[in-house]
Design a protein that fits this description.
This protein is mainly alpha-helical and 84 residues long. It contains five helices and two strands.
């Protein structure tokens, strides 16, 4: 994963598209890929690169939290998305 930093330095100031896997690896703390995802998101947070993504990536990223909330709904009587 040591190759991530030189690549990020080369992309300084550039727009970088982030797909679902970057968010999921980061949020899940994936042991294999978190060390690659974290510096990318940190570079975006520090405004070293410009991160962009799409609504499909956001929707795909939200599947895990949605399912977790459905599970908790059964136990805590709360809803992630209100149902009318």
């Amino acid at each position: 994963m040591g190759q991530v930093i030189p690549v990020l330095q080369a992309m300084c100031g550039q727009r970088v598209y982030l797909d679902t896997n970057v968010f999921i690896y980061f949020l899940d703390g994936n042991l294999q890929f978190f060390p690659a995802a974290e510096p990318v998101l940190r570079a975006i947070s520090n405004r070293e690169i410009i991160g962009v993504t799409g609504e499909i990536a956001v929707a795909e990223t939200m599947v895990g939290p949605y399912h977790k909330m459905e599970y908790e709904d059964d136990h805590h009587n709360t809803r992630f998305f209100p149902v009318k």
